[in-house]
Amino acid sequence: MKMRSSAVTLVEVIIAAAISILIIIFTISSAVAISKFTQQALHNRIIDSQTSHGTNAIAKELRDGITVLSSAIVAGKTYTTSSTCIVFSAVSYDFSKSNPLLESSDTVVYSYSSAKSRITRSCGTGAGSKRPATNDSHVVTGTDCKFSFRVAEAIEWLNTSTSTVSETFRLATIPLQQPSCTRNGISIPCAWQPGSQNLTVQTPSGASNICIQYPVSPSPSSCPHITSVEIQVKRTTASPGGLVTTVPHITEARLRNKR
Description:
This protein has 1 helix and 15 strands. By secondary structure, the protein is of the alpha+beta class.
């Protein structure tokens, strides 16, 4: 009987080499993909940290706000509150005094420039205030920015009848969209017509705490009633690996004397 040779043939060597090369290529590709993913994740975290730091600084100062202004002049320039700009008065302070809150007020502006892709801060200070006075100083970079404004109202109502009745309330200003309502902490339906300042709800017998929230378009009539501002900033960037991503950041602040 003829014995089969135990030597490795050339074909087997070629196949083994091909498999080894494929494994090496797969391993290298996986390592590169993981490296790019890690770089992208790190890049996004850095961008998000930078964006959140800026928006949180805006929100922190807004929480000192007394009221949103429809417009104001700061450093010789007129600013008007809109979806890309917010003008508000804030309590003046001097922390070197025993009573750091002063009688005067400061005018603060945060304005977004799409051409420069950034939000800037300007501030005109009141008498004795130590709040930093700036003129178009850079706060945060963003490829898109939007300020949204909301009004919150609370109504204490007593229904003296023995049955549920329909009550119509006149709101502080005209809502931009359908308001949301709660009664004693529970959501309830409410009737409202676009453009109207009136809102109708059903009130049961007894006492009710009715809370109404609604977005508004900033105007001379609505600005004094704004209670909170939402800041939305988006930043689109390319990572070192060339991947383009958009990092959004949203925060909201309620004004000091509207809580």
